[in-house]
Write a structure and sequence with these properties.
elongated, about 110 residues, alpha+beta, two-stranded antiparallel ribbon, binds zinc ion
Length: about 110
């Protein structure tokens, strides 16, 4: 079948338990990596695969902050700043779209009503 994947064509990576900081339920999930894909990076502490190195750096900084090196912490801070900037731009675009949509409805209502 096209577009469906079965359990047999994926590699299963079981993540070990977390450090006990309340994130065990999140970290105890199975991560399925399709056979056709190769993770761009893997966590050096729990071997969780990631599509990009930036996502891996964010994971290391969020989940293993106490154990990571200074270089990993600096990479995490850079990735965090990049992610924050991208989120801010997304929020600006969302507000602009909402304002434009409300003006469109207002003018449409005014034109149709009069
Ligand atoms: Zn990890």
């Amino acid at each position: 079948m096209i577009g469906t994947r079965t359990e047999t064509d994926r590699r299963r990576v079981r993540l070990p338990s977390s450090t006990g900081n309340g994130t065990d339920a999140v970290d105890a999930i199975d991560v399925l990596v399709p056979e056709a894909e190769t993770p761009a990076a893997s966590c050096p502490y729990c071997e969780r695969p990631f599509r990009t190195a930036q996502l891996c750096a964010l994971h290391v900084g969020e989940r293993h902050l106490g154990a990571c090196t200074d270089a990993e912490r600096e990479t995490y801070e850079d990735a965090y700043d990049t992610e924050s900037d991208a989120l801010f731009i997304f929020q600006l675009k969302s507000v602009a779209a909402l304002v434009a949509l409300s003006l469109l409805f207002t003018y449409t209502y005014a034109i149709v009503w009069t």
